[in-house]
Amino acid sequence: MSDEPFDDATSLRRRLDELRTEHHDLDEAINRLAQLPLGDELMLRRLKKRKLVLKDRIAAVEHLLEPDERA
After folding, report:
1. Which of helix, strand or coil describes residue 38?
2. Is the pTM of this model over 0.90?
3. Domain boundaries defined on the chain
4. Predicted local confidence at residue 70, as pLDDT
């Protein structure tokens, strides 16, 4: 049972890495799509929305990993 917090933290860090990678990949896809002369505006909006959702999830996981700072 003493390994549970470590496992949770490890699993959260792994998830955080996955989210950051997906966020980075979306950023690159958005940049490529935005450079096209006739880029798909609907797709661009969807990718940007997904990127914002990922940003919120990243912040939530980071919050779980950071210890409370109460002074």
Report:
1. coil
2. no
3. 4-65
4. 59
Question: What CA–CA distance (Å, rounded) separates 23 from 51?
Answer: 6
Separation between Cα atoms, residue 36 and residue 16, nearest integer Å: 31
Tokens (6 digits) for 41? 């505006």
- Tokens 């980071």 label which residue? 62
Residue 59 confidence (pLDDT) above 70: yes
Look at phi and psi of residue 40 and say left if phi exceeds 0, alpha if psi is from -120 to 50, else beta. beta
Is residue 27 classed exposed, middle or buried when 0-12, 13-18 and 19+ CB atoms within 10 A define those classes? middle
b/e string for 6-22 if b means 16 or more Cβ within 10 A?
Answer: eeeeeeeeeebeebeee
